[in-house]
Description:
The chain is α+β, with helices and mostly antiparallel strands. Strands 2-3-4-5-51-50-1-49-48 form a nine-stranded antiparallel beta sheet. A five-stranded mixed beta sheet has the order 10-11-12-13-17, with no helix packed on it. It has a five-stranded mixed beta sheet with strand order 23-24-25-26-30.
Amino acid sequence: MSTSSNLVVPVVLWGRKPPTHCIAAILMTPDQRNIITGCNDGQIGIWDVTENSQIYPRSMLFGHTAAISCLALGSEKTDTPYIVSASENGEMCLWDISDGRCVENTKMPHIHTCMQAYHFQVSKDVRLVCNGYYPEIFIINPNSLEILYTLTSKVAPDWISACCILHPVTKDGQSICKDDVVVAISNSGAVKVWTLTGNEIMTQPVYENESKQIRCLNAQTLTCCSYNQRTVLIVCSKYWQIYDAGDFTLLCSESNRCGERWSGGDFISVDKVIVWSNEGKGYLYKLPVSANSESVEYRKPSHQTSPHAYYILDMFSESSMACAPAMTFHIGKSDRPTRFLLRGDSEGQIVMWTLPEVTERQMTLVRQESFDRLPALPPRCSTSLADIWENLRHPPAGIIDGLCDENNQPLAITSTIYIPSQGKVACGRQNGSIVIAPASQSIILQLLETEELKHKDVPVKILHGHHGCVTSLLYPFNESTRYEPQHLLSGGADFSVMLWDIYTGCKLHTFTVHGGEITQLLCPPNNCNSRILPCVCSVASDHSVTLLSLRERKCIMLAGRHLFPVQTIKWRPLDDFMVVSCSDGTVYVWQMETGHLDRVIHGITAEEILNNCDENATPMESLVNPNITLTQALKRRNLATFKNLAQQKLQIQTGTVQQSSSHRNDYLKQQTYPMFIQGIRANLKDPDIHILFFDTESLIVQLLTEEYSTMSPGELEAKGFMPYADQPDHGGFQGMMLKIKEKAEAVTGGQRSPSRSESSSRGGSPAHAASPTHKSVTNLDRSLTLDIAQLFLSCLHAWGLDPDLDKLCINKLGLLQPRCPIAFGLISRSGHMSLMLPGWHKRFCQEEIMEKMTKDFAPPPGKVTLIQQARSASSGQFDKKSLALAQRHGLVQSDYTDSDQDSDSSSRKDVPQRQSDAILNEMKAFSMKARWQISSAVTTNHLLSIISTANTLMSMSHATFVTEKTRKKRRGSKKRFTGHLGLVVAESFDSPSTSDDETDAMMMQQSQIKQGWSLKAALHCVLLPEMVGPDYLKSPQLEMLARRWQDRCLEIREAAQALLLAELRRIGPAGRKEILDQWSPFLPTYVDPQLSLMNAETLQKNEDGDDDEDEEDPMINDTPIQKSSSSFESRRKQATAIVMLGVIGAEFGHEIEPSRRKLEDIKKGKKSAQEGFTLKNYSLARHTSKALTFLLQQPPSKKLPAYTPIRRAAIDLIGRGFTVWEPYLDVSAVLLGLLELCTDSDRLVPSMVYGLPLTPVADVCRTARHALSLIATARPPAFIITMAKEVARFNALAQAAQTQHSTIMSSVLIRGKSEILKTIELLVEKMPSDVADQLVEAMDVTIHCLDINHMKTKGLQELFPTICRFSMVCMCPVTKRVWVGAKNGGLAFYDLKQHSKCQMIQAHSGPVIAVSVSSDGKFLVTYSHVDSRLKFWQTASSSLFGIGSQQTKCVKQTATPPIPMTNTTNLLKLVRLVWVDNRCIVMLTVDGKEQKYSV
């Protein structure tokens, strides 16, 4: 599942059996709220610990590919709850345990066995001190996972078995020095000491200060007494010893118990230690006085030399374990430190003991008793995943539970594949059968309450054939369309691979070539040779790999000489190589065509070859196939085999490897489906856990595609999605619309169109393949996409917050309520995932119940209505608030009769009342409180998904999930429930019988549905924080929203903008100030190009990839990953900072002069400017505007390409906040820059509301158009005057140049003509008086943009009627001059010559508000209301060479009666002058009078 920047919401179906969790490492966080366990299969468990030491599972983190070897704290700061995990193959991850996000990950060549977080004197936060299978100690920075420096041995270097850090002190506890000392012991028993001064550097290794050999081999742990730093405890498996920290003299020793080995220990106090064994028991010892550094007898020979045990911490369980449990000792950091011993075992059980306080007297008593009968302490608490599974009211659902169970028990699913083109899921089970079921229906059955869908209604196919379990499944058509859409392959434990036809359910062929169970089935890439293309590749546990041809139905290659299990298979299709890597690190290179083993490689070369096998791999010298002939090479386009290496290097740099990248795109395009189901396992022996990935963007695109595909061309044109007939179409839209049509047919027809024709021509046509497209969406052929949308929104909706809206969602929109708490997940960078475990919400439910108990709240008897529950779940004052809020938004709760809720009580008749109530209450607590507390990242993803999908459905027609079947059912009763404001919340039958007009009813239905979606979006966008309550809501993460400010997908973009603005308003000025303080340091400055990460060289990443789930940066992948990721993080921070400050500035900044749009707000006194963007303190405004214009104007470079989302965001924000940025901008440069981007808009952008993602070029174009119109309407004079200046400058240049110079012709003022005219048209529509004030300048620009020859032939009125609305504009029909009256009393006229300027003559003493020319073109009349004069001008002069002003002279002026004026009089409509004949004119005034004048 590729999730580069998509908004993906995972939902988990855990299944009836808990995952294996064999714990290998365990850790408790300093605040004692969480326990972290790392297991042998590579997952990490996060557990919540409550105040009274109850342990609840929270989530499981997936991402490591090998067993976890150690865990450590990643930060001491409370606001960053980070931990670091390391696995046995060198991977390290930094996780944020609050939401399970992987913050940073890397792979090292070193394997750590122990990491300790220690806060050195000189560092700001903790550093990791790591040792393992290497002879050094690494000091690592946990935030970037980079090695800071290395501690190395001069004397007898060996692997370090244990180490600890201490701060040396004198006898009376005074600190000797400021430095930290690292003490370590090597496997061979050499103790080494390093003193760290704080100026160590990466390049120079630090050597030890002293070294001493002691008799102690393979130490397990080495701990220094934290109370006085003077004694050291070393635990080996056979004995443990206490040494003096100063000179390492042995003070005392104790050997192991019979049948146990020691595995670790720690000091409890200066004279007591705790040591634990591999049996999972803890022993408490009292040290002899000679080993107690605080006693007088210290280091003196005494009669009692051995420590004595006085307590055992035991589990009292007889069960034997697969491996030794992981144990750790934890001392709390609070005022009275609690001390815990934690143990995690191979069964996934966590046990916690609180250490006992034992007095001296009790100890003497123990001493007198016999040694065998030590007092034992049972654990404080213990829990395991198995316990959790048992205690759940709803056992976690599997994906096909209840569809075809055996003996009422679902069989374990051993392999899963999802078939997105048909919305089906195929599950192989342990008894050898394969079940094929419609995915969304079977999941709805598991998760949601549904009346109409029963288990027996779901159409299921079962394929029988394998003996033993089905180990792997493959549906090759998912990978590539070159395969048949009806083929499904399965591999089993019976050594066979079977080929099935999924439409008929019959077995087509069985391949039996392997000698072991099949472990993997995969498809070769698209660019193999034609014999390999119809093959699939299968791998078996006898270490053999085969290529099975589906066309020839035989095995065409068997590669079986591997000595170790096969791990991965890579391809070099152009060289005809299949590259097989085995678990011991060897790589076998096979020729596919001939089946020859080309070579076997080990070591570093093997790794390099593996890393360079990819679909777009660059050719390597070491991997060129010598056996390919020239003709074959040409046939496979493998010219690279013959080109020299230099040219390959060049190819890599300039990125000209075209052919291969195109394949990669195909591959990625097919990967995004609205829903994708993946089966994963915690352990190979476990049944599958199913993760549903909902891709919001894909879902929206599919919905819109289907919507557009049912429209007729006329409708599309009306919506502006089709170019009009007179525009030349450059193959853009028409092609796209055809594609949309095809796609929709494919979706409703059950598969993609190209394959449909093939399958029918081959005669194997499935019955329903050629179904026509349906316009009506009924129950039977309702599109898959709508099913997925219904499932998705039902899972995500905030149920229970607003009972009215819930009713509306169920009855009108057709959503279904969840029947059990839903386990969500979160995907973070490079595919790491965190999945919530079932039962994680129990903690909140417990807290809720406790709260209720304390309030002594008795629930009402009998059935609880939704409203009462809502009230009981929230406290009283909260309720008043929410009621007030609901009233304000017209959603006030009205009491309903219960008829609508009987359905859910009837379905549970057999369940005892109390239990169903308990389940209801649990669901309440879950949906109203718990699920909003998971983490802010999860909240963000959920809200964005809900709002964007709801808005999409709102924009569609007939977007409801209520099916015909339900409607018919509901027609039985005739009741209507109306909520507040007459909104019909539930209606028992479809159209009111009174209305004869079906269409009216349909319209009514439509508007109600639209209103429903709109209310749903509003609830999640604006009302949620109030309704959930701020304590319970982890509010959306502003950073994630800022990064989606210009998301590819318009709906998600708008949702992110709405959410971000709502959240910024909610936190108020103080909250915004905090955010500014947090982000302003990351705003790039332009002082020193080396410092700024935003000079032309950097800001490499386009922001789309800059999402939380980003892949590593493609530009810099050849450098070591650690470096790239840290600078990547800082670049990402810069991009985010620019958007964040831009948004706050644009929305809350101080404007130099308020724009028209915002005047009302200011009058109401609503707006106070945000600090940093005010007139007194404008530093942030200046810096931000600089950054934004930089992004607009910087020429594209390799690091900052032309059409990236960060540029789009900058363009958008310049438009939004123009009035704030204006003083710091070069306005003409900004306007020309925006015009430059809009030049092709007619060709690229269908309509501003077109929902499908556009190409980056078109998207930038759309954003720039929007920004241009925002700027123009916010500051009309600035726009008009700046454009007029630019036009004048351009004309001057053009006149100076002798010929039509190419640079002049390609000027943006030439190419952007249509866009400029559009903007002027918009201004005349919206703000005519502003245009009238600058009419001469506006006319300069207009004349520049119109074609002069057209003007001469057609006239201004026809070409640009908008501007002719003004009474002070006219065009002479004879001389073809344009006359304009100016505000300063001047009269301007234009001779239509290329690049000519207008000429002005002074006409009146006030604004000229009407101009008109006679039909023969000889006379012109002008009028100004200020001097109340009408003047007649003679335009045509008798003089042949008459120039300008001589030509137009005043022949007569008449005083007119003054017109009464008030402040509100519209000057533009005051007077009209109409010529009756060539010498007479009539003046019409606004008050209805007429006067006649003549020359």
